[in-house]
Amino acid sequence: MIDRVSFTQMKDGTKEDYDFLTEHETAYTKGTADRLLTALVSLDESLSGYQITRLGHSLQSATRAERDRADTDWIVSALLHDIGDIFAPYNHDEYAATILRPFVREQCTWVVEKHGDFQLLYYGHHVGADPHKRDAYRDSPYFDDCAQFCERWDQASFDPAYDTLPIEHFADRVRAVFARTPYDPAIIRPGAREPLIST
Ligand SMILES: [Fe+2]
Ligand SMILES: [Fe+2]
């Protein structure tokens, strides 16, 4: 059994090299959830100026989702929706959506991907941006879902007095989502809509 590949250029690799790499990468992907949880904690140091940290905001969004009895896809999407702030401050929504896309329903990925534009409704007029930028997506089946995501879970979750659940509360749920088979049609379910609020 080899412990590293033989090649210095990919085109020279052998079947044995690529079998070895595939096995190696499969083992590595099992750590995705915990790497994301670690990254989420590092959001605690990002973007000061708000009354709560970015980690606090993420946890509060997920807590509100859980208390609305949203399903796991929604809760994990709410938890990770701003994780792109670390490396992609100008397209943090697309960055988070890319992380989620293989593992959650299309509906949730779409909402995370567009939430930045929908959030402008609340403050665009203060910063010289178009508050109605979201109107470009009026024809999407997920328009109302994204509007509700922003109204109930995102824009509302900057309250230091709110009873926010800790990251440990969500850890197993994150692990379960990222242990799913990537791009499983039974998970992605294109066009399917699950409610954000259940009674
Ligand atoms: Fe955001
Ligand atoms: Fe947010």
Automatic annotation (TrEMBL):
| InterPro entries for this protein | Inositol_oxygenase, OP_Dioxygenase
Q: Which GO terms describe its molecular function?
A: inositol oxygenase activity; iron ion binding
Q: Does Nucleotidyltransferase count among this protein's keywords?
A: no
Q: Where in the cell is it found?
A: Cytoplasm
Q: Which UniProt keywords apply?
A: Cytoplasm, Iron, Metal-binding, Oxidoreductase
The UniProt entry's GO biological process terms, in alphabetical order, are: inositol catabolic process
Has the keyword Iron been applied to this entry? yes
What Gene Ontology cellular component terms go with this record? Answer: cytoplasm
Taking the first listed entry, what is the main subcellular location of this protein, grouped into a coarse class? Answer: cytoplasm
Cofactors needed by this protein, per the record, are: Fe cation
Q: Which Pfam families match?
A: MIOX
What is the name listed in the Swiss-Prot or TrEMBL entry for this protein? HD domain-containing protein
> What is the species listed in this Swiss-Prot or TrEMBL entry?
Roseobacter denitrificans (strain ATCC 33942 / OCh 114) (Erythrobacter sp. (strain OCh 114))
